[in-house]
Amino acid sequence: MRHHDRADEPDKRALRREIRSARNRLTADDVRVSATELARRALALPELAQARTVAAYVSVGSEPGTLTLLDALRARGVRVLLPALLPDNDLDWGTYDGEGSLVRVRHGGRMALLEPAGDRLGPDAVTEADAVLLPGLAVDARGMRLGRGGGSYDRVLARLERADAHPALVVLLYDSEVVARVPEEPHDRPVHAVVTPSGVRRFGPADARHP
């Protein structure tokens, strides 16, 4: 099948606007309750239960909350890596040592991000992860993820591929964000599982995506 990445972009932008609009209507209570359920379900995943190192991220605004999960992983003795955005949109990484170890960083006109305050480990540190939690806006029945549009995690996935690293790829979403299909481009890669407040859905191996 031929992929028309240029044609897909307007469709991706429209879907991103729709999902962001729905997220913006959530209350603080909605986000907090969902974060608790997301953490409970994610912690039960064998991929996370067996992981020694997990690359994750700190949610902002009305994104599905991650801090509860990050603290629970750390309490288990898991090494948690968090990203720091570089000027070229690539990601460096640092270790999560609790909520007090985070600093708020504003990158240009974007929403401020919470990033690790400690030493930087380099962009290749993600290749040490046993599981990678990916931010996203939607995932479809094939496991294809709609990202936030910055391209940072496309670079992460390409780096993992070059390193022949195969961590479990997991995305955390709200229930309504598991959709029939998201627009796909040639560089897009499927995730292995999506966790929502109401459950977990798994997808086939990455090499099972259609040609």
Word description of this protein:
Helix content is 28%, strand content 21%. It is an alpha/beta fold and 211 residues long. α2 packs parallel to α4. The longest helix is centred in the first third of the chain and has 20 residues, at 5-24. It starts with a helix and ends in a 9-residue tail after the last strand.
Largest sheet: 7 strands, mixed
Please work out how many helical segments DSSP would assign.
5
The tally of strands reads 11
The fraction of residues in strands falls at 15-25%
State the helical fraction. 25-40%
Question: What is the strand arrangement across the widest sheet?
Answer: 3-2-1-6-9-10-11
Distance between the termini: 6 Å
The pLDDT mean sits at 88
Short description:
The chain has helices spanning 5-24, 28-43, 46-49, 67-75, 152-162; strands at residues 53-55, 79-85, 91-95, 102-105, 113-116, 131-134, 138-139, 145-146, 168-172, 193-196, 199-202. With 211 residues, the protein is an alpha/beta fold. It is globular and about 40 Å long.
Please render the helix and strand layout as text.
Elements: H1 5-24, H2 28-43, H3 46-49, E1 53-55, H4 67-75, E2 79-85, E3 91-95, E4 102-105, E5 113-116, E6 131-134, E7 138-139, E8 145-146, H5 152-162, E9 168-172, E10 193-196, E11 199-202
Helix pairs in contact: 2-4
Question: What tags apply to this protein structure?
Answer:
alpha/beta, globular
